[in-house]
Amino acid sequence: MYLEETLIRASGPLSMLIGIALATFLFWLEAMHSRRSCWPAFLAIYVFIVTYFIAAARCVQTYLRWRVDSFDLNGNGIFEHTEPFGAYGYLQHHLFADTGRAMAFITASVLAPFFLLFSYVLYRALRFAVGLIAKPQG
Q1: CA 126 to chain centre
Q2: CB under 8 Å to 79, separation ≥6 — which residues?
Q3: Which single residue of 13, 104, 115, 134 could bond 57 by disulfide (Cβ 3.0 to 4.6 Å)?
Q4: pLDDT digits (tens, 9 = 90+) for 93-121
């Protein structure tokens, strides 16, 4: 019960960190191919990150809906005093409280450019740091 609640709470920040890591990795992969224009690659990574954020939000939403529906014994979609919910009340709270997950198609498209910019800066910093380490000091 406590592990499940912790995982549900951590799913948002964890999916954001995974999205940043994926975008940084995709920038690294794109750097392996020499191209004249980086904009098509940048847009492809943007679309991938938006799709990833929407898919991650939908997965968590589907899991929460499944868990909440498992407590609805008569199947009417309304929780009554005869249906045991008890200590699992956090499931219903998390299902309805997170607006960012409920409106993932808007949230993802608005926040993805910031994550993409951060990932690109992180990629450039890592590339610079690796370049400094790889050069012999002399």
Answers
A1: 22
A2: 71, 72, 85, 92
A3: 104
A4: 777 777 777 788 888 888 888 988 888 88
Per residue in 31-62, is it b (16+ CB within 10 Å) or e — as a string? Answer: eeeeeeeeeebeeebbebbbebbbebbeebbe
In this structure, are residues 112 and 81 in contact, taking their beta carbons and an 8 Å threshold? no
State if pTM tops 0.85.
Answer: no
Question: Are 30 and 54 within 8 A, CB to CB?
Answer: no
Are the C-beta atoms of 30 and 38 separated by less than 8 Å?
Answer: yes
- Cα–Cα distance, 10 to 25 (Å, whole number): 22
CB 8 within 8 A of CB 93: no
Q: What is the DSSP code string of 72-114?
A: -SSSSS---TTS--GGGHHHHHHHHH-HHHHTHHHHHHHHHHH
Q: How far is CA 66 from the centre of its chain?
A: 20
Q: How much is the mean pLDDT over the chain?
A: 79
The backbone torsions φ and ψ at residue 36, rounded to the nearest 5 degrees and listed phi first, read -75, -45
